[in-house]
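Quick one:
INPUT:
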């Protein structure tokens, strides 16, 4: 039996690690591109690499989206059936400080990869998935955003991803490539990068619980997002490439919550009652009721959340919610995990992580 070969860029990231696990379970041979870094960047995939079961099924290659030669080399040697382009400078806030770099990686990087497939003569053999994003909708033009909603990117990140979206379509139309866009709304997990808001909250609260920090500082807590679970969403990346034709799909839960709600739900899960005071930049949350025996590091009236100007963006996307009807209808998909499931999983995982750090320090 001949196994399918998949190549994943961004394999060391949140989605790359879950997608690798998913594809290995589906009996794929998985190749991943990792970039050179001065410190270890494989913690999310070490458990796969170290698993004897995957000894001849999981391979890593050094490469970089900004280095076209490395991509050509890898495509030619791997000859993948499916390429998932998940690599990116994926932080919207950071993209305002690194607009050029973000564009090099997210726009030119996607082009480099498509061109590497074409130049290697695999336009008709290799399917291509581009990690597009709900950030394309930015200043929303419709209440719920679907594949038909007009784009209005509001950051260097979103603008760079707009180019990647269109170049993917362009290679589909010009060269008959099976090249598809998954327009994914926010998705989170215990493997989420620590500077994205959900993980910042779950790790921040865990540090407060263990007395390692006193307060969590956030930006716009009224921002609204459609948050799904990364595990549900990587299944979609795969489904997008199994569809009978290349196409573009919005993937979303169709439910929307504020950052403030996410904070409240995390405290609720911990059994801690908080109350909000003040307005605008002075808004803050204090602890009202909690179990002192369970949480010895907490104090009544302790201010645990404050607002900091530092985390506001020059141009904010404040309201996103998707319409995933097309994916539901054509790909027979609906998300399995709720926001409560997500919060429980993330809080439990970060409490465990911080507990280990706390024990090692005491
Ligand atoms: P992530 O955790 O930030 O992972 C990004 C990955 O890209 C990491 O493996 C990173 O490597 C790699 N990378 C960065 N620059 C690179 C370069 N120049 N060359 C090669 N690799 C590079 O992101 P994610 O949350 O998994 O998201 C995956 C993709 O989906 C991204 O393209 C993101 O923009 C897009 N997306 C994400 C969401 C979401 O809510 N998560 C929603 C829509 C779209 P290091 O580990 O070395 O940093
Ligand atoms: N990161 C962060 N840190 N965001 C904060 C903070 C904070 O302290 N306080 C409030 N926010 C707000 C942001 O302003 C934004 O409106 C919202 O929380 C979500 O921010 P992030 O978690 O950083 O995600 P994002 O929506 O900007 O971008 C993520 O989702 C996109 C899909 O819509 C990233 O994963 C992108 O790569 C992805 O394309």
């Amino acid at each position: 039996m001949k196994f399918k070969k998949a190549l994943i860029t961004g394999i060391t990231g949140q989605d790359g690690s879950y997608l690798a696990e998913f594809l290995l379970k589906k009996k794929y041979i998985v190749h991943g591109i990792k970039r050179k870094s001065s410190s270890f960047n494989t913690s999310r995939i070490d458990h796969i690499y170290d698993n004897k079961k995957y000894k001849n099924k999981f391979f890593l290659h050094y490469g970089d989206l900004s280095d076209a030669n490395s991509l050509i080399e890898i495509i030619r040697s791997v000859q993948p059936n499916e390429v998932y382009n998940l690599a990116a400078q994926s932080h919207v806030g950071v993209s305002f400080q690194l607009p050029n770099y973000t564009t090099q990686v997210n726009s030119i990087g996607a082009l480099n990869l498509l061109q590497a497939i074409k130049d290697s003569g695999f336009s008709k053999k290799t399917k291509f998935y581009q990690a597009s994003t709900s950030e394309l909708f930015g200043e929303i033009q419709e209440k719920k955003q679907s594949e038909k909603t007009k784009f209005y990117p509001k950051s260097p990140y979103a603008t760079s991803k707009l180019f990647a979206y269109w170049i993917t379509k362009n290679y589909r139309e010009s060269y008959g490539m099976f090249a598809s866009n998954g327009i994914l709304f926010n998705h989170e997990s215990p493997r989420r990068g620590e500077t994205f808001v959900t993980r910042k909250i779950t790790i921040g609260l865990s540090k407060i619980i263990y007395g390692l920090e006193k307060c969590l500082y956030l930006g716009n807590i009224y921002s609204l997002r459609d948050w799904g679970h990364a595990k549900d969403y990587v299944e979609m990346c795969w489904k997008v490439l199994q569809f009978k034709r290349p196409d573009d799909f919005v993937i979303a839960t169709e439910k929307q919550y504020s950052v403030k709600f996410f904070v409240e739900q995390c405290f609720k899960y911990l059994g801690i009652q908080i109350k909000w005071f003040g307005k605008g930049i002075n808004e803050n949350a204090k602890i009202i009721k909690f179990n002192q025996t369970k949480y010895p590091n907490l104090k009544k009236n302790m201010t645990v959340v404050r607002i900091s100007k530092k985390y506001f963006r020059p141009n904010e996307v404040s309201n996103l919610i998707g319409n995933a009807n097309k994916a539901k209808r054509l790909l027979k998909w609906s998300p399995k995990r709720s926001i409560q499931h997500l919060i429980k999983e993330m809080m439990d995982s970060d409490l465990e992580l911080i507990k280990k750090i706390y024990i090692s320090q005491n």
